[in-house]
Write a structure and sequence with these properties.
Largest sheet: 7 strands, mixed
CATH architecture of the largest domain: 3-Layer(aba) Sandwich
CATH topology of the largest domain: Rossmann fold
Radius of gyration: 19 Å
Number of helices: 10
Helix content: 25-40%
Order of helices and strands: HEHEHHHHHEHEHEHEE
CATH superfamily of the largest domain: Vaccinia Virus protein VP39
CATH class of the largest domain: Alpha Beta
Amino acid sequence: MAEFKTKPLLKWAGGKRQLLPKLIEYMPDVYNRYYEPFLGGGALLFALQPKEAFVNDLNSELINMYTVVKKNPDLLIKELRKHLENHSRDYFYNIRNLDRTDDFISLSNVTKAARTIYLNHTCFNGLYRVNSKGYFNTPLGRYKNPNILDVDNICNVNKYLNSSEVNLFNYDYKMLLKKVKQGDFVYLDPPYDPISKTESFTGYTIVGFSRADQIKLKEECDKLHKKGAFFMVSNSNTAFIQDLYKDYKIIVIPARRCINSKVDKRKNSSEVIIINY
């Protein structure tokens, strides 16, 4: 049972808040350590609040944000309050364009973390997206009262991260998986296999995620299985994914795709949960 009342700090493409009941339903009853190589918004992590967790994401700004919440919440709240007080169209684009300047690398980790949260809660559809140069390029969203500063949630996430042994990494996911041992649980939520050519979204980092990468991920799952670890994979319900994981248990669940900028075009579709136990 979760000790602290937490929720994801960011809106994240592929976030799992709506699917949490199903994910929790199909988890193993008992496991040792918790691993999540594609952390993103961390919905499952914050719902479970495991006492020993190893979590990772290739997005360095994301991991920096979690690290700052863990180590410097008061300074982060102070910085976010400035964003809240100054928020406007021009201010948004000034903050967004900081990563295009030579000074960006010298900004403090707190300043960068506050920027990440501010942009996420004010940009169009809450979509974290970077272009080929690594620049954040989502435009301003149409929000009357964006939730820029949620003091209670920042404090509660801070309490969880410090009350448990939560280890944060900014690796290629395969490096984290080398740490997994028998009896550990691994939740893998990679960029999804697109259900159509127009629905692919892997813009969280400069590096994309192709079908060749999906195959490599499945091979890593095979290694986990041989180690005696438990794994759970989330992905699209495509023929490619169904065939790729045909040797494992596949559960099809209904889901609502929320990446499209127009609410009426967000499709009801299905996803899969793949488990080896």
